[in-house]
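User: quick one, sequence for these tokens?
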């Protein structure tokens, strides 16, 4: 042992070399540990990034599916809106007076037209309430407002068929004409509102994909 100490004392360069070797080993060890941790962290981050990308794809798919479903709802409600408006207009111009006609054929035709009005109304109402949970509240309210106007017109038609007084019938016909204008205006506003809603929704979907 004494001889080793004496040898090292006489040759100090050996100490420097030994320290250098130990230092290099230590540096390599530290670098290896940090490199291993960095690699593990990178792998973990890559896994998380993959999960986020998959989630974004799922969300995009869900949003697109929701839009497609909602769009189908609006297409059906638009069709029901047209049919209801058409039924009301047809009765007003072809059935309102004829239902009091002495000609049985004209009277029967008017009765059929009035039945078509209430049938169209119920089909519209059922479609609206079945679709309501899947619609934004403001859009549902617009469709419901239109529905109430149409039902008021139907009630006027139904009650007027039992009036015999011509003066009262003229008054009711005038009210029906006013209601018809309100229904037409409401339908126009509904179409504008719906078009705006759909294009805003579609635009937001497009932007979310980029």
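Assistant:
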């Amino acid at each position: 042992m004494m001889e080793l100490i004496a040898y090292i004392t006489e040759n100090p360069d050996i100490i420097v070399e030994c320290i250098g070797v130990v230092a290099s080993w230590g540096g390599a060890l530290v670098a290896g540990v940090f490199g291993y941790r960095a690699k593990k962290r990178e792998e973990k981050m890559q896994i998380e990034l993959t999960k986020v990308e998959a989630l974004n794809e799922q969300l995009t798919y869900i949003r697109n599916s929701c839009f497609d479903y909602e769009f189908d709802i609006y297409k059906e409600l638009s069709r029901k809106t047209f049919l209801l408006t058409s039924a009301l207009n047809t009765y007003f111009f072809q059935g309102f007076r004829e239902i009091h006609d002495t000609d049985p054929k004209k009277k029967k035709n008017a009765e059929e037209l009035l039945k078509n009005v209430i049938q169209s109304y119920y089909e519209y109402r059922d479609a609206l309430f079945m679709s309501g949970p899947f619609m934004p509240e403001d859009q549902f309210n617009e469709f419901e407002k239109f529905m109430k106007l149409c039902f008021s017109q139907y009630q006027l038609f139904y009650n007027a068929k039992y009036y015999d007084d011509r003066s009262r019938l003229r008054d009711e016909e005038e009210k029906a004409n006013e209601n018809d204008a309100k229904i037409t205006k409401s339908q126009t506003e509904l179409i504008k509102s719906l078009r705006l809603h759909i294009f805003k929704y579609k635009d937001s979907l497009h932007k979310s994909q980029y």
